[in-house]
Amino acid sequence: MAKVLVLNASYEPLNITSWQRAVVLLIKGKAEQVEHNGKMVYNNFPLPTVIRLRHYVVTPYKEIPLTRRNILHRDGHSCQYCGYTGDELTLDHVIPKSRGGGETWENIVTACVRCNVKKGNRTPKEANMPLRQTPRRPISSLYFEVTKHVRTGTHQEWRKYVIGA
Ligand SMILES: [Zn+2]
């Protein structure tokens, strides 16, 4: 079912909600419509896809779980050593576990089977296999969720509200 991107009063993405909840916020005057897809919920009431709150809301930082799915998404489903994209993707510890490398966003990257085997129990430097980008913890969990929707093509119209999506 259609989801709606909720922007803060500052135009920063705040969360993703159902269209029903978005309609309630609009009717109560707590939000204004920013984008709609042309479909009508009621007479002269277009189905929103992006709304903006009238008052600024302060939100706490939410942790993003360190999962295989999330690591693959961060790395754009591509091997961080050779750029391969396909089904044969694994997770690689940049500093091998046996040598003290941790289970962290900074130490786990997407790697194809070939690169993972080739690198073996070495660091990228020892293996002469530099990483294409430095692995980092994603900054915002919402940003992370929004980019997933944009990349799968379900909500292209959200793209302009998320830098780099
Ligand atoms: Zn590779």
TrEMBL record:
Cited Gene3D superfamilies: 1.10.30.50
Membrane-crossing residue ranges in chain numbering: none
Residue span(s) of domain HNH nuclease: 66-117
Single GO MF annotation: zinc ion binding
Pfam families membership: HNH
Matches recorded under SMART domains: HNHc
InterPro entries, alphabetized: HNH (IPR002711), HNH_nuc (IPR003615), NA-targeting_endonuclease (IPR052892)
Top-level taxon of origin: Bacteria
Protein name: Tlr0496 protein
